[in-house]
UniProtKB/TrEMBL annotation:
<dbReference type="Pfam" id="PF02880">
    <property type="entry name" value="PGM_PMM_III"/>
</dbReference>
<dbReference type="InterPro" id="IPR005844">
    <property type="entry name" value="A-D-PHexomutase_a/b/a-I"/>
</dbReference>
<protein>
    <recommendedName>
        <fullName>phosphoglucomutase (alpha-D-glucose-1,6-bisphosphate-dependent)</fullName>
        <ecNumber>5.4.2.2</ecNumber>
    </recommendedName>
</protein>
<keyword id="KW-0313">Glucose metabolism</keyword>
<keyword id="KW-0479">Metal-binding</keyword>
<dbReference type="InterPro" id="IPR016055">
    <property type="entry name" value="A-D-PHexomutase_a/b/a-I/II/III"/>
</dbReference>
<dbReference type="Pfam" id="PF02879">
    <property type="entry name" value="PGM_PMM_II"/>
</dbReference>
<dbReference type="InterPro" id="IPR005841">
    <property type="entry name" value="Alpha-D-phosphohexomutase_SF"/>
</dbReference>
<dbReference type="Pfam" id="PF24947">
    <property type="entry name" value="PGM1_C_vert_fung"/>
</dbReference>
<dbReference type="GO" id="GO:0046686">
    <property type="term" value="P:response to cadmium ion"/>
</dbReference>
<feature type="domain" description="Alpha-D-phosphohexomutase alpha/beta/alpha">
    <location>
        <begin position="198"/>
        <end position="308"/>
    </location>
</feature>
<dbReference type="InterPro" id="IPR005846">
    <property type="entry name" value="A-D-PHexomutase_a/b/a-III"/>
</dbReference>
<dbReference type="GO" id="GO:0004614">
    <property type="term" value="F:phosphoglucomutase activity"/>
</dbReference>
<dbReference type="GO" id="GO:0006006">
    <property type="term" value="P:glucose metabolic process"/>
</dbReference>
<dbReference type="Pfam" id="PF02878">
    <property type="entry name" value="PGM_PMM_I"/>
</dbReference>
<feature type="domain" description="Alpha-D-phosphohexomutase alpha/beta/alpha">
    <location>
        <begin position="317"/>
        <end position="417"/>
    </location>
</feature>
<dbReference type="InterPro" id="IPR045244">
    <property type="entry name" value="PGM"/>
</dbReference>
Amino acid sequence: MVFKVSTVSTSPIDGQKPGTSGLRKKVKVFKQPNYLENFVQATFNALTAQKVKGATLVVSGDGRYYSKDAVQIIIKMAAANGVRSVWVGKNTLLSTPAVSAVIRERSGADGSKATGAFILTASHNPGGPTEDFGIKYNMENGGPAPESITDKIYENTKTIKEYPIADDLPNVDISTIGVTSFEGPDGKFDVEVFDSADDYVKLMKSIFDFESIRKLLSSPKFTFCYDALHGVAGAYAHRIFVEELGAQESALLNCTPKEDFGGGHPDPNLTYAKELVARMGLSKSDTGGEPPEFGAAADGDADRNMILGKRFFVTPSDSVAIIAANAIGAIPYFSSGLKGVARSMPTSAALDVVAKSLNLKFFEVPTGWKFFGNLMDAGMCSVCGEESFGTGSDHIREKDGIWAVLAWMSILAHKNKGNIDGNAKLVSVEDIVRQHWATYGRHYYTRYDYENVDAGKAKELMEHLVKLQSSIPEVNKIVKGIRSHVANVASADEFEYKDPVDGSISKHQGIRYLFEDGSRLVFRLSGTGSEGATIRLYIEQYEKDASKTGRESQEALSPLVDLALKLSKMEEFTGRSAPTVIT
């Protein structure tokens, strides 16, 4: 079929500034006339011509509501902008890490490589007609667009007057694998629908020793549960865990991807992954029966993960530190050593201690995976992580939830080499974590999220905290008045980062209060929600005395929590007597 290109007149729409995770709004906002189209064209206009004309682009996402409509719109706009080929995961499904892998690893039948991708996701936010939708652009390295590009996109949204679209192009059948070809003003245009899992599974098999994991899963002593929370991870779970590794089908929970995530909140934490938490023996109500040895969950687009042992929660900060500490021995991909490690600033300093002990390069970066990507592209970082349930490595340029689960399975397999057969007791997730604390010390850690706070009030709270930092002696007077036994504040600042690769400077990345005993309070406004503001409060206390690493986190952190809430005047500014989520 030959298609024609039409030019549609439009005008700027307010509020289309992409954050570190792209543009996220309610579905009803995206459905406004020209809203999605304006953003897509603003993105095309921000890219160099060679990354659009004659290029190959990936367009897929987590399958949330409105994805199928959005894919067809973007295909028609890509055709009109002179794109040569669009690759779409079957049924629009590709996890965010899989998109990164496809950009980096996949070749078309003609040898073509993708130069970028539109990823349709609002990550861990709810989906459905009244919930959230999102879009972001990833570059040819497989990672999120840098600020230089997202700034251009935003500027373009403020001046856009028209966009081209091949509106007579019929909708492509995205439920069937194959290539559909068209002819247009710039020549041939193809849409290729391909298997969502093939490229990603191939990559995972090149990183991990699947045979050793399969042996662990075959042991009657080892039981396992994986909860996809009805997100896109379900498109990979059966293929990897059941077909490749031999797990029982009954080990999979909520692994059918749904447009509304089954009405749930696809955020893998102790609050929202209720069914998994109960099955692992961590809920207040006893479900009866013995919990599995190992459990894990994913978010909507499968880039985040939660790791659980039997009646035991592993903090994301501990998780990345433990993976780094065990990677060389347990994961073939790292057998020749680690180039370096990195964490986001709010993440606990557990990884710092491992890096120092193993003499590894270490980096502390702002929140946002693109900062890790820069380090990885420069060959400076192998393993990285965020406290917000994001863990990954330099195999791609996104955090990777299933990778993290396979990393933990690899560590468990490695630690249990001699225990799988016979009567020997398995080394458990809890055993591994407690041994890590005995070796490196424990970073007691919690995060309080105050979601959908009035944006003005949130800003006032942050300004109050910055103003306090002007006099550390005054801060310490307040501290002693609230909790006399808490250590003194040694320094306080707004975190600023100079990228060691490109020299760029990122300011206002979070407010820090650093205590003399290594404890920290961090306050940050998050841009991951679609409405209002989210205040995140991070509380950390370091304990290197092995005899004191077994306390309950709430008990150990109670003085610092009380201090943080009173120092920030949280209830006064937000009107909230309790956080929305505690992690």
